[in-house]
Every structure is written in structure tokens, then in C-alpha cells.
Predict the 3D structure of the following.
Amino acid sequence: MKKFIVLTLVGVVLASIFAIDAQAARKTKAKSKISKEFLEQTETEINRLTTKIYGHALLSPQDNESLITIKIKLDTQMIEGSAPELAPLYYKTGNILKMRDLNKDAIECYQTVLENFPNTAFAPKAKAALKDMGVEIKDIENESEENLSDQIQ
């Protein structure tokens, strides 16, 4: 009788552990989805900063903080899960950073587009921007063909 009770308790404990893991997995999947609100707010802020720069207005310290916050949010979102909706946000953020002479950060944004969103309309634009900045870009297709030919020989 004691064995039955102990085995039942162990079974209940194991079942509850698996149930908790399943809930955590569902929450993780939910986090990886990009909210419409996040996309709209980020797009609006990027457009505001772009308009200000094209209008030759100086960015305030709050604007600079906003730009940094956008980059951090985008990078955090990429860690949680990428989606093609991020490609235009990264590309436009790269443009703003480039106009502000923050070339290292701009290059990161453009490379993120190339590496994570190669099939979007923003990949060729990001590639062109990187070339304009003097960044050497390795063509993934040519590189894999070279590796194959090296392996064959």
C-alpha cells in the first residue's frame, strides 16, 4: 500500500513538471511572435527620425536615445525570433545610423538584413549600401560553390 502511494505521488510530481515545461514552451512561442503594436510603433519612430534627418534638423538627445532604443529592441526581437517584417525596420534603421555617421551600427543593421532576410526586397538594398560604405561582401552562393569545387579536387 505504501509503495502504491509513493508511486502515485512520484507520478503526480512528474506530470506536474511536464505540464510546467509545456506551459513555458507555449509562452516562449508566444513571445517569438512580433506584435503588430511593436511593428507600428517602431515604424512610426523610424519614420519620424528619418523625416527629421532629411529635413536637416538636428537630433535631440531624446532622439538619439530613441534611435539607440530602436536598435536594442530590434536586436532583442531577433534573439526571440526573426520575421520578415523586421527587414524594413533594420534597413531603415541602418539608413538613419549611416546618415548620423554611426557606420559600425549601420553596417550591423545592413548585415542583419543580408544574413537573416536574403529573400526580401531589402537585401539588395542593404548589399548596395554596404558596398557604398566600402564593406567587402562575400557572396554566399559563390562561396559555397568554391567550397564544393575545393572539396571535389
